[in-house]
């Protein structure tokens, strides 16, 4: 039986983070990825917060960054109109990347650091006492296992570490990628070549839990929609045509005109925040990280997943090292549990616990989105006569001022 | 609007002869919600004469059907090396 | 028996996307070992299993070879020699480079695919045999007999089969009919990670790569692909289908 210090299951951001950290620490680590090539099963919207890579990855400046986000735009859409808020800055804390390519680059870093990455192999089982991983009819022994299998927690469920997601705890995302030229992307979004835009959309076409997105890659554009699975079920939303409906809106279509669609993809996103994190993140020396553990934070205008995924992988790696150095490798699971609970991951998820209630409120996705558009229409509609802002707001909010005040207060506090 | 068939044509797959997802036929027959018909982003579930037909070719491996299905279908990832090969994930 | 297998990395062509409007390919896809290289390797491994000895995978290509060559090692090559700075090489230069490596050791057999699935120039076996002054057997679809001294092969000439015998050392190029290449299991992949890989540059071998031609355009052929979903009962569908076939014929 082959033996490793640790086996990492899954070559996404979380698994790669874990394997990279262990390899850097001189540990004998094996990462097993089910895709024929690393990165080919990873899908997300498009943006990564860079702090964790700047902190932990040597040579991060060579990462395949498409563009650094210099413009944040939040757009409220009704059927025909839109209102956008834009924040533009020279400072940046995030970048747009193609996750497939980014993960492939991370896998190279793992191998350069001395870790072993094997792809095209699916792990069938993890067995305890003694700890081993079963794949391809082979058993591989190890001191610790990091499960980074992504949002569908098939192995974690089998081991009883976590239960499956309920429809209200996850959203399904669909994405289309359009090829343009680099200069077209620059001019359409009014940015320089290394600068990018992250644009999130609320309202049309779902008007419920979820929203649209556009991210600017170097010479392609990622555009898509996310909708919570329970809302899709309840409202009978045809998810397969969701991205198409969204991009048909006049304020989305303009960015894509003349572009050629080159890929369509879909993925689940954990949406339950702290409530989606199971009570225990380990069983013996098997730890769960990334999406498997539910480490995604949605605040409506920002969504964090990849940075938490990588970071949780790092924490698992450090826990295994600490346990081994202390002479009892079997303590890694417990150390990991403590490290994560003390980390910014749980800290942030806890901090935004109330955001879950705000985002549960469909009035933000429907009534208030429409109202925002109507108010703007009211004040910009100048004919012979025009409207006072006060009158427009009073009219549009008639009969729901108290409701609104409470909702906005909750949003102000929660987000 | 680009049809879902055309969009799936943009995606590269290695298809296994064995399906990795199996709806339970007798349960589908009596299921009156049939959410699979619209939540699957690849539109792989079809209704013909009251029966659910599922085609695993073209599966984007998102897991939505498993989470949404009130009748608990059998769901596994495809075998290693099989399934979808995204390039712009 | 010491066997060299010349293998080639190619783009995973199944994953290459074509931009519909411009017909340009997007070549940002993973590379893999060419299918015919696998056939060549499989045959070499079979001979080693029978006669003992060593199988060495040899390749010239891009820096990605460091990764792709692992597929050859996982399949069963004992070690590898790779040259990673010749992604833009011509068949002429590649043959020179491979020959320089082959000269360093005394191989009994040199096996490769008939041609690669990307360029399909099919020149390597003949060029290498010529440079090294060795006999060559091309289009090999079966090895009938092999000993330390001699080899007997079947050549697939499309219209007829030819049985050819040659003394070793000798160069073979094989077709895809020769075998079904094995798919490495996890334990083979793990073993492969410990096998030695020697990495060289064209410069180390004293070969300069000239650029006698340049690629002006690389576009996919124009294909008018349409999709029509025919609905209705079986009779309707058949009638409509027949109509379409008649119309388009």
Descriptive report:
The complex is a heterotrimer of chains A (about 425), B (about 90) and C (about 250). Helices cover about 35% and strands about 30% of the residues of chain A. Chain A folds into 3 domains: about 1-45 and about 100-165 and about 270-340, FAD/NAD(P)-binding domain, CATH 3.50.50; about 170-270, 2-Layer Sandwich (D-Amino Acid Oxidase, Chain A, domain 2); about 360-415, no CATH class. By secondary structure, chain A is of the alpha+beta class. Chain A is globular and about 85 Å long. In chain A, helix 1 runs parallel beside helix 3 (about 100-110), helix 1 runs parallel beside helix 10 (about 305-325) and helix 10 (about 305-325) crosses helix 11. By secondary structure, chain B is α+β, with helices and mostly antiparallel strands. In chain B, the strands form 3 sheets. Chain B has a two-stranded antiparallel sheet. Chain B has a two-stranded antiparallel ribbon with strand order 2-5. Chain C is of the alpha/beta class and about 250 residues long. Chain C has a single domain, classed as Rossmann fold (3-Layer(aba) Sandwich). Chain C has 6 helices and 13 strands. Chain C has a 9-stranded mixed β-sheet, with helices on both faces. Chain C has a two-stranded antiparallel sheet with strand order 2-5. Chain C has a two-stranded antiparallel ribbon with strand order 3-4. In chain C, helix 2 packs across helix 5 (about 185-190) and helix 3 (about 90-105) crosses helix 4 (about 125-130). Chain C is globular, with a radius of gyration of 22 Å. Chain C starts with a strand and ends with a helix. At the A-B interface, strand 11, helix 6, helix 7 and strand 15 of A face helix 1, helix 4 and strand 6 of B.
Query: Assembly state here?
Result: heterotrimer
Helix content of chain A: 25-40%
Reported CATH architecture of chain B: 2-Layer Sandwich
Output the CATH topology of the largest domain in chain A: FAD/NAD(P)-binding domain
So what's the CATH class of chain B?
Answer: Alpha Beta
Characterize this entry briefly.
The complex is a heterotrimer of chains A (415), B (89) and C (249). Chain A has 415 residues and is α+β, with helices and mostly antiparallel strands.
Question: How are the elements arranged and paired?
Answer:
The complex is a heterotrimer of chains A (415), B (89) and C (249).
Chain A: E1 2-9, H1 13-24, E2 29-33, E3 47-49, H2 51-56, E4 67-77, E5 82-88, E6 94-96, H3 99-112, E7 116-119, E8 123-127, E9 132-135, E10 138-147, H4 154-158, E11 170-179, H5 182-189, E12 195-203, E13 210-216, E14 220-228, H6 229-234, H7 242-248, H8 250-256, E15 260-270, E16 282-283, E17 286-288, H9 290-293, E18 297-298, E19 303-304, H10 306-325, H11 332-342, H12 344-351, H13 353-360, H14 367-380, H15 389-396, H16 401-414
Parallel strand pairs in A: 1-2, 1-10, 2-7, 4-12, 10-17
Antiparallel strand pairs in A: 3-6, 4-5, 4-6, 8-9, 9-10, 11-14, 11-15, 12-13, 13-14, 16-17, 18-19
Chain B: H1 4-8, E1 12-14, E2 21-22, H2 25-30, H3 36-39, E3 45-48, E4 51-54, H4 64-68, E5 74-75, E6 83-85
Antiparallel strand pairs in B: 1-6, 2-5, 3-4
Chain C: E1 2-6, E2 9-11, E3 17-18, E4 25-26, E5 31-33, H1 35-51, E6 54-60, H2 65-75, E7 79-83, H3 91-104, E8 109-113, H4 124-132, E9 136-146, E10 150-156, E11 161-167, E12 170-174, H5 186-192, E13 197-200, H6 234-248
Parallel strand pairs in C: 1-6, 1-8, 6-7, 7-13, 8-12, 9-12
Antiparallel strand pairs in C: 2-5, 3-4, 9-10, 10-11
